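Supplementary Methods S3. Complex input for the adenosine monophosphate-bound model.
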Amino acid sequence: MKIIMLGAPGAGKGTQAKMISEKYGLPHVSTGDIFRANIKNGTELGMEAKKYMDQGQLVPDELTVKILLDRVAQEDCKNGYVLDGFPRTIPQAEVLENALKELNDNVDFAINVDVPDENIINRMGGRRACVNCGATYHLQYAPTKVEGICDKCGNELILRDDDKPETVKNRLDVYHKQTQPLIDFYNERGILKEVDGTVSMNEVFNSIVSILG
Ligand code: AMP
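Predicted complex, serialized as structure tokens:
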């Protein structure tokens, strides 16, 4: 099963993608995570991607498409995957569609986690990420056991540069201009499913499970 998660930054698609990944035994493929791992390791790709990410802009398609296609060609993706944060533009969606077509394959579901902008802005300001392992939390909705400390590895939590209010505004603008058109793209292909992302994490997940079966 191949699943695409759509939704604004902060809609909770990453959390849902992780839950889907665990329940259905599919690899969780997040282009944002791949970029962040590269930044942490100081790779050339990481340095290039950081310039865009820190401003809330998209990393250019050429770079993004290459890392995604390399990732889904790996053995563990043979039986499917959950894509989180890819595609984010129509050209990215077309590249994926064509790459799958060559393998006589296609995406099964594009799930749009729908959350209005006002809720997003409120959510992102409370988001915290571990400097070491990248785990994400929320001051209000998913707090750590000890304030400011990662439950998983005990390192310090920060507000990511790309979650800062001015960057969030840019990311939402970018989302509406470049990513929202994907909703029509997948609707035309008959695989779009909408879920209300404003309810609790578990309720969102239940809606998704009833779609995936
Ligand atoms: P995310 O963790 O998915 O919110 O991604 C964080 C940042 O990484 C985004 O704001 C972009 O700058 C970059 N990024 C992640 N995925 C993509 C993509 N598919 N296309 C372009 N940029 C991306």
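The beta strands are 2-6, 28-30, 81-84, 109-114, 127-130, 136-138, 157-158, 192-196. The chain has a mean pLDDT of 95.
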